[in-house]
Amino acid sequence: MLSVEDNNLLTRIEAGTPMGNLFRRYWIPALLSEEISEPDCAPVRVRLLGEELVAFRATDGTIGLLNEHCAHRGTSLFFGRNEECGLRCIYHGWKYGVDGKVLDTPAEPAGSQLKNKVRHNAYPCVEAGGIVFTYMGPKEKLPVFPSYPWLGVPQEQIYIAKSFLECNYLQGLEGDCDSAHLNYLHRMFKPDARREFLNLVDQSPDFEFDDLDCGVRAAAIRNMTGGATYARISHFVMPFIGAVPVGSMVDGKLDGFKAVYQVPADNHNTWRYDFFFKWSRPFGKEDSSKRDFVDAGYKKLRNKRNNYLQDRERQKTVNFTGITEFLNQDACATESMGPVVNRMVEHLGASDAFIIQVRRFLLRAVKDFQAGKEPPGLIFDAAQNNFAHLRCEAAHLPAKVSWRSLYENGE
Ligand code: FES
Ligand SMILES: [Fe+2]
Q1: pLDDT at 287
Q2: Residue nearest to atom 1 of ligand 1 (CA)
Q3: What number does the ligand 1 atom closest to the CA of 70 have?
Q4: For residue 173, what are the contacts with CB-CB under 8 A and spacing of at least 6?
Q5: For residue 265, how far is its CA from the centre of ligand 1 (angstroms)?
Q6: Three-state secondary structure readout of 367-380
Q7: Dihedral sign for Cα atoms in the order 352, 353, 357, 360
Q8: Ligand closest in space to the Cα of 178
Q9: Ligand number, closest to the Cα atom of 258
Q10: β-strands 249-250, 269-277: how paired?
């Protein structure tokens, strides 16, 4: 249960809110690189933290992320001309560089200084792993771009599924920090070899947590025979990343995992990026089915307006929900709570332990931030840019061996 005040504090992210200001201090995904795949291609609208923005890739390949509305009189730059290293408004031809500098005001008289007096709002961008990341905070607080393990593998070993979630980011994030739902929401009646652990005897794991600088590490520990355990280790990473162990085992080790970014579009909508990667090999065709569930704008074909095309017959015979594809199942569970769930009326149980930890971490971060402290997990010194310890694992451990041994030596 959360008070109305704490729920508001956690869920409101538009400019000027405490959480909105906190989130703006991190590098966050703005869009996929493929959405602006070539220099001078069509600009793309980007709704992010309640702001209306437009992204474009300039002639030299650099990326601009600008306020969508022209500084002159507000026409949308989405319709603009992306040409000769700048984005030109179609109304009176004002042209902007990727940094928001006004390069040209052709309707003004020769010698006009207007263009030197106006600066359009622009956010810096960095591309990594197929995602364009941006930083929307104060310029003097720009942190080092973090070297998370999932961003450090070759592009062909990465697979990203982007989708639009029609609810507040926290509902999405809480789904990523909730391994208990796997046994129900995602249950297939035919055993699924890829998710073998769902068929284990111990269906009620014990949880243990460690606070990290940048988030929370969570171990779900299932008892096996003879005192042995099976541990699955997930992470919550500021500001809204849930990293969970998925994928196959290679030589007894988990071959990659996935990091899910639940990026707030606004208070009531979220861009979800499921960032899968493998340590050992490229993704093949057989891995790439996850895109078929959204349209060209990453909106789900099965959505709340068509009840996710739930099939009651399949619910009896095929899977627990009668809904196809785990991302649709997640969306149904979280969107059907409403745009922002009222956490005053929930009843949390032992299986919600990770969610409680994540809320606690986020609440402490935002309250400390309001009191003037720096946000957790940011780095400003490139020499400290080491996040190798943010590794998810799934491991069988002999009796008396702790899952913490997987992270010895600070790893
Ligand atoms: S509104 Fe954009 S140039 Fe006038
Ligand atoms: Fe799920």
Answers
A1: 66
A2: 73
A3: 2
A4: 236, 240, 242, 260, 262, 358
A5: 26
A6: HHHHCCCCCCCCCC
A7: positive
A8: 2
A9: 2
A10: unpaired
Answer yes or no: are the C-beta atoms of 278 and 256 closer than 8 Å: yes
* 266 strand-pairing partners: 269
* CA of 83 relative to ligand 1 center, distance in Å: 16
* Pairwise CA distance, residues 236 & 234, whole Å: 7
Query: According to the model, what pLDDT value does residue 198 have?
Result: 64
In degrees rounded to 5, what are phi and psi of residue 127?
A: -100, 135
SS3 of the chain: CCCHHHHHHHHCCCCCCHHHHHHCCCEEEEEEHHHHCCCCCCCEEEEECCEEEEEEECCCCCEEEEECECCCCCCEHHHCEECCCCEECCCCCCEECCCCEEEECCCCCCCCCHHHHCECCECCEEEECCEEEEECCCHHHCCCCCCCHHHCCCHHHEEEEEEEECCCHHHHHHHHCCHHHHHCCCCECCCCHHHHHHHCCCCCCEEEEEECCCEEEEEEEEECHHHCEEEEEEEEECCCEEEECCCCEECCEECCEEEEEEEEEECCEEEEEEEEECCCCCCCHHHCHHHCCECCCCCECCCHHHHHHCCHHHHHHCECCCCCCHHHHHHHHHHCCCCCCCCCCCCCCHHHHHHHHHHHHHHHHHHHHHCCCCCCCCCCCHHHCCCCCCCCEEEEECCCCCHHHHHCCCC
pLDDT digits (tens, 9 = 90+) for 232-250: 999 999 999 999 999 888 8
Residue ranges lining ligand 1, Cβ < 6 Å: 70, 72-73, 75, 89, 91-94
For residue 291, what pLDDT band results from cuts at 50, 70 and 90?
low
Q: How far is the CA of 107 from the centre of ligand 1 (A)?
A: 9
Mean of the pLDDT values across residues 374-397?
95
Distances (CA, A) of 27 to 168, 178, 195, 243: 19, 25, 32, 16
Q: Is the pLDDT of residue 251 over 90?
A: no
pLDDT given for residue 121 in this prediction: 98
Q: What is the pLDDT of residues 190-212, one digit of tens each?
A: 876 666 666 666 778 899 999 99
Give the CA dihedral 168, 171, 173, 174, nearest 10 degrees: 160
- Protein residue with least CA distance to atom 3, ligand 1: 92
